[in-house]
Amino acid sequence: MRLSRPPALISLYRKIRFRKGYGVHSPFVYNLITKVIEDKSVYYIFEEIEKFRQQLLNDEELSAITFRETQSAAYGALLFRMVNFYGCRNVVEIGSSTGVMGLYLAASSRTQRNCWLLDERHGLAGRVREFALAHHLHKLQYIEGNYKESLNLLCAELRAVDLLFINRLPEKYPIEELLRSCCPLISKHSILILSNIGRNKEMRRVWQSLKQHPESRVVVDLYGLGIAFFDDRFPKQCYKVYFNDGEK
What is this structure's pTM? Predict the structure, then answer.
């Protein structure tokens, strides 16, 4: 009989594995872990975004969807640091919902980042647009409508994106089809962040496929989300790194 590991032991193992970059021989991944994933720097805009989240949670019409579809402040701060550390100028979020995570992406450098937030539903963009205007995030654009059509519009405007974040999507959403629509926007300089990689069997299969894709080079599994880099200067590398995304 095979004994299962206690949950506390699994959690401890995850915390120890590659903690503070120990055991990582790649300078690129070491910097990712120590300067991005484990960085605890706080910026004033974080507080403003969290106030915005609370306003949405207090809104009778938007509270449920905001609670269900947005991640923690720590998760948002990680997105902010990814954009900032790698100097991403063109950023796209798919599945923006009420826009909380998109604001973290857009706020990293309000004058230099072009940030497009995409959602297929209508009526969710109003409040985040108000926040963007009030905080001078003039290059944030919220696009409502079919993802494939929205991506086609972006493909006509952009050669590639620097960072593509696929946020939480409905349970049965055809994620592989969506990824194929994203392919024209992904270059060797792009970063792809995929949320909820362990949510169900389908997401785990998609993540495994992305790890094995010949064009993905450095792949980092943070248990709740996955990060893929495509720069062909790097050898194929796969890492699992503990990330405490805290609570909402």
Answer: 0.89
